[in-house]
Design a protein that fits this description.
about 220 residues; alpha+beta; Gyrase A, domain 2; Cyclophilin; seven-stranded mixed β-sheet; about 25% helix
């Protein structure tokens, strides 16, 4: 069983911290705890947010019995670890790699000492776990990226990264849901929207999901878009 600790974050939040590493098993514990606490609908709890290896519990101190909440968190956090390998069928996401849509593909290839085609094959051959959502609505932090293409982020971020850009930052990969600044290595772009407020379900992905990318050419990309 993984160890954990509970750390106050001011007077209206508690942080449950599991072991400090990027690991599907640790992440599965965090997501399972968040699901349990959300399902419990504890009076005064405003939000429960899982991350790579922790869970933030935000509550109204005037409406929440602190001791009861703490006891519930301790009990649920101590439950046996779920099976991190049990995931639903992967969500398949098309990507047009390279060119003006993936300006850093060559740099990632140089990092790994391999060809651009091999970068694409490696990136598209893995099944990634959505560890958490953050940064902007719909941005899914996914991993774990093959070490041969796990290039570090840029030391100076770009001012504008186009929506749909697929990037790598170390062992993480992700899709920019909107045009924002960003320092990840951009290897391609997808026409699929990770976040769309007009959809019945705005978020395409959630923590714990499985994702696979597949390559499409520019003509296919334009048809999707």
């Amino acid at each position: 069983m993984s160890h954990f600790r509970i750390v106050p974050a001011g007077d209206s939040a508690l942080i449950v911290e599991f072991e400090e590493r990027i690991d599907p098993a640790i992440n599965a514990r965090a997501i399972a705890l968040a699901d349990l606490l959300q399902a419990a609908a504890i009076a005064g709890v405003r939000d429960v947010v899982p991350t790579y290896r922790s869970v933030a519990v935000f509550f109204d101190p005037l409406r929440t019995n602190y001791d009861t909440l703490l006891e519930r968190i301790e009990r649920d956090a101590g439950r046996p670890a779920p099976d991190a390998g049990r995931q639903a069928e992967p969500l398949r996401i098309p990507v047009c790699y390279g060119g003006d849509l993936g300006p850093d593909l060559g740099a990632v290839a140089a990092f790994g000492g391999i060809s651009a085609e091999e970068v694409i094959a490696l990136h598209a051959s893995a099944t990634y776990r959505v560890f958490m959502l953050g940064f902007v609505p719909g941005f899914a932090y996914m991993g774990i990226v093959d070490a041969r293409i796990a290039a570090p982020r840029h030391s100076t971020p770009r001012v504008r990264v186009p929506a749909g850009s697929v990037g790598i930052a170390g062992v993480q990969t992700g899709i920019y849901p909107a045009e924002t600044p960003g320092g990840w290595q951009l290897i391609g772009r997808t026409p699929i929207k990770p976040f769309d407020a007009n959809r019945a379900q705005p978020f395409l992905m959630k923590a714990g999901d499985a994702v696979r990318f597949y390559a499409i050419d520019r003509a296919e990309y334009e048809r999707f878009a």
